Each structure stands twice: as C-alpha cells, then as structure tokens.
Amino acid sequence: MKKDAIPSEVFQSFLLWIIAIGAGVFEMTLAVIDSISSQTGAGIVGILTQVAARTMMFAVLVYIMVRMLRGKNWARITLALFLGGFGILSLIIDPIQWLINGGSLWDAFANADNISILFASSRILHIIAVVAALMFMFRPAANRYFKAES
User: Fold this and answer.
1) What is the number of other CB atoms lying within 10 angstroms of the CB of residue 84?
2) CB of 47 within 8 A of CB of 41?
3) What whole-number distance in Å separates Cα of residue 74 and Cα of residue 90?
4) φ, ψ for residue 34 (rounded to 5)?
C-alpha cells in the first residue's frame, strides 16, 4: 500500500482521536473555570502548572496521532495502550468510585449545575470517541496499512 493512500478507517480513527483530545481540552477548561469560580484548588500557580502539564501532554498525543496517521505502528500501539487503556480508565474511575461510595444518578441529575452538565456531556463524548477510534484503528484495512508501512 502506498504511503499516501491512508485508509478511511485510519483517517476516521485520527479524527476521533482529535475529538477525544478536544473533549479533554474542554474538560480541562471547565475544571479551571470551576476551580477559579469556587476558589478551591491549589491557587493560580497550581492551576497554571496543571494546565501547562496537560497542554504538553495533549501536544505529545497529537504528535503520536499524526505518526499513527502516517502509518507508524508504534504510534497505533502507543495510542491503544495509553489512551485506550489508561485513558479510558482515567475517564471512568471517578464515576465508578462515586457510585461505589453511594452516589446516586438521580441525585446527580437533580443537583446538576451548568458546569457539571457540560462536563458530563463532554466526558460521554470523550469516551465514545476513544472507543470508536480504537475500533477504527484495528479494522482490517487499517491492519493492512500498518503492516505495509512496517
């Protein structure tokens, strides 16, 4: 397969990874707004430190996504392990712990404010994008593309 013949499955996976990163940036923005407005958290220096670290992480992930788009199998495996494995776990661990500790979905909906509704909506989109990106990244045409580029 030629290098410039990117299968649609790989391109769709790339777009879904970009959506996932966008959701992560949006969630980070909401967390900063919430932290500043409620005056909780580690203060402005702590907030800026977290934003800087996450921004660098997002930049590295976009670089890896571009390498995946170009047919680098190491990038596909890295995305699958880090975003598909650790990433999904980090997205679902807090809600699962909250439910285990007696949290109620009914109460969550009843007490939801604008920030929590936006955050939950973004988190759902984020999870869907990651799962779909993983599925497209390992479709037969994608497997052939990565094998041809090795």
Assistant:
1) 20
2) yes
3) 22
4) -65, -40
Contact assessment for residue 125 and residue 19, using Cβ atoms and an 8 Å cutoff: yes
pTM: 0.86
pLDDT tens-place values along the chain, 150 residues long:
445 589 999 999 999 999 999 999 999 999 888 888 776 555 777 788 889 999 999 999 999 999 999 999 999 999 999 999 988 998 889 888 888 888 778 887 888 888 889 999 999 999 999 999 999 999 999 999 999 766
Of 9, 8, 28, which Cα lies nearest the Cα of 126? 28
**Structure token digits, residue 102:** 């007696």
